[in-house]
Amino acid sequence: MAAFCRKVIPLTAEDRETVLDYLEPHLLRNPSLALDLAVKEVSYMLRRSQKCVNDSCDYFYGGADALATKVAEREDIIDRLQSEITSYLVQLSEQDLDPQESRMIPLLIHIVNDIERIGDHSENVIELAQIRRQDNLPFSEIALDDIRALQEKINQQCHALYEIFDTFNIAPKAAMHDREEEFDEQIERASEEHVKRLEQGACDVRSGVVFLDFLSNLERVGDHLMNVGERAVKIVPFLAK
Question: What value does the mean pLDDT take over residues 187-206?
Fold first, then answer.
């Protein structure tokens, strides 16, 4: 009945924020289809995490308080998605699976956990933004530009993953690896330049602590995205058959 209602009554954007759309218990009897739909739900979960990252960054730049509220609400949804997708995959593992299908399940569970951690780092960024606002900490345009450049790399990595999940094309993985190297170099360069500004007295020490914490959280987001990419390319060739 739930599946029928979703076909008859289109979901609004707000509805889609609060419900699972693809996973149905009766599909557990068809493992190949269930795995395909689980991947679609994972892709949706990643989109929610990406929105968390962007909203938390926008809040840090000076965006409205509603952004912080939205990140918290969306993080609750991400946590629920993690729990429900994992539970579904565990139930699926108890079915009569072929060896390839059995290998996919732990990979998907690891992916789900990595995506959930991205949401956690977004909440950390919200906390850093609140510290900045409460203490009225100054940030140079150079520092903010460094963050924006890293945010753009994260969005590019997410879009590469969507292509992998949605089209079963593993080619974007190579570009993801190159961007990850660039991303790490940007993190290192931004940290070094920040230390120089501190030594020259051109940066507030408290702002510097927040900035370095921010970089650390973005670095971890990048790591989780690469983990997702590494596992995704092992999964989608089986789904494409």
Answer: 88
Residue 57: closest CA among 115, 124, 156, 116: 124
Q: Report how far residue 198's alpha carbon sits from residue 169's, in angstroms, rounded to the nearest whole number.
A: 45
Confidence at residue 22, expressed as pLDDT on a 0 to 100 scale: 72
Radius of gyration of the chain (CA): 20
- Report whether 238 contacts 100 (CB < 8 A): yes
Q: What percent of the chain has pLDDT over 70?
A: 90
Tokens of 211: 């900035």
Beta-carbon contacts of residue 7 (< 8 Å; ≥ 6 apart)? none
> Cβ neighbours of residue 87 under 8 Å, at least 6 residues apart?
none
pLDDT on residue 32: 86
Which distant-in-sequence residues (6+ apart) come within 8 Å of 84 by Cβ? Answer: 20, 23
